[in-house]
Amino acid sequence: MIKEQGKISLRSELKERFIEWCNYSTTHGIPNIARSDSKTVKLIWFVCLSAGSVYCFYSIVTILISFLSFGVLINIEVVEKAPIEFPAVTVCNLNPLDRRYSQSYIDEVLSKHNISHVKDTNRIDINPHTVKYLIKANILADKNLTWQQIRQFGFEIDFMLLTCFYNDKPCNASDFVWVYDFDFGNCFTFNSGNDQKGNKVPIRLMNEPGSDRSFKLELFLGDEFSQGIWMQQSGARVIVHNQSVEALIEAEGKELATNYQTDIGITRTFVSKLEYPYSNCVKNIYSPDGHKSEYFKAMFNILNMTTYRQKNCIRLCVQKFIKDSCGCVDPKLPNIYKSVPYCATLSLLNCISNSRIEYLKKSDECKECPLECDSVDYQLRTSKSRYPTMYYTNYLRYQTDLVSRFPLTTVVSDNHIQKNIVLLNVFYDDLATTYVHEIQEVSADALFGTIGGNLGLFIGMSLLSFVEILEILIEVVLICLKKRRNNNQLILVKPVKF
């Protein structure tokens, strides 16, 4: 009997405390349900509270799903200021080898591979592209050649440079830094941010847009004697790029045709993406610790690159596939396998070609090359015009500095000049820089703000309302513990029979 009374007493006390809590709750609707004596009014308030709660929690679930989907919005901002940094400009001769200095070595390579009859146009039975690839591969594979000797096989900037002006001020060969490219041999970068000894120098600035305020470069690409007989075209190649990245000349460059002036108007865009979990891009692209990928680390530790680029990483993936398939490495691609020989025979070059085809069939072959989150892109607008005019051609024909670059046996004609020179003009179309930023579609602040707004609007709850819920839960626990302790102290006395 006493235990039953204890249970009733506990139930009554909990009910009494809960009603008291409802009367003083700051949540809208609950006090009205508790205080009203009319069942109809109680029902109305209950329906309103239930409807508000359902819609409120539906809105909260929706915003939570949106937050956890990690969507992004694109924010585009155009900022115009002057002066701004001028990009680096890398130029190459489409002909990678100067026959005046490399012909004897070329003959040795062709003879070694039994294609010495390549000079006989009536007996050509091999693709000129393959011949060129074979020669360049053998040059890199020859351990007896130093980089200085390899450089001497190609065209030097002193030989090619006719005139150079930056913002109407003369520039010269000392303003160019040498870089080597497998496809084009000697290439030269203007405004790289380094001098020829590798020391840092200030990056040049530009104050005005337009073709009159530009980088103008006039190049002599060599006469027919210095051009390779297996070359399929003549001209130059140019790439406009940021100083922080290595120029991918074959992938990103544009060709300059002889007998033309090529104008390149540029605009600059900075792109900034959000990293994980909003994307799989990598934010730290200047350190080998930026990503756990083997290729990522190798670009810094083995190739000595200063900036990660996904395009270079993918080239390493292709290189590994070729190495595993052919047992040698493609001299065209970055090489991190220093102990593996170059593919430098016709059969191995054929293996490279077949391996590239197989690689394209395996879409999931490379999974270790994340996209970089931050990049600088230059949009190029190109146009061409005839160059040089007859007047300027006659002027050049009497310039000793140019005429001396032709063989002594050559009678320099207008045609000789026109088909061997190019003029490049690079300038800003607009000094406005476009900044493309990814921003969170739903930020943490927006998430909590939306949740709080919905709770307050539909059911009148605030942060302190949750404290009230915590309060009643604590009191329920304390009441139960108190009753349990009191029940343990009760002594049941049985009646004594006489």
TrEMBL record:
Q: Which coarse location class describes where this protein primarily resides?
A: membrane
Q: Name one Pfam family in it.
A: ASC
Top-level taxon: Eukaryota
Q: Name one GO molecular function term.
A: ligand-gated sodium channel activity
**Cellular location(s):** Membrane
Membrane-crossing ranges are 43-74, 455-481
Annotated family: Belongs to the amiloride-sensitive sodium channel (TC 1.A.6) family.
Q: Which PANTHER family match?
A: AMILORIDE-SENSITIVE SODIUM CHANNEL-RELATED, PICKPOCKET 17, ISOFORM A
What name does the UniProt record give this protein?
A: Uncharacterized protein
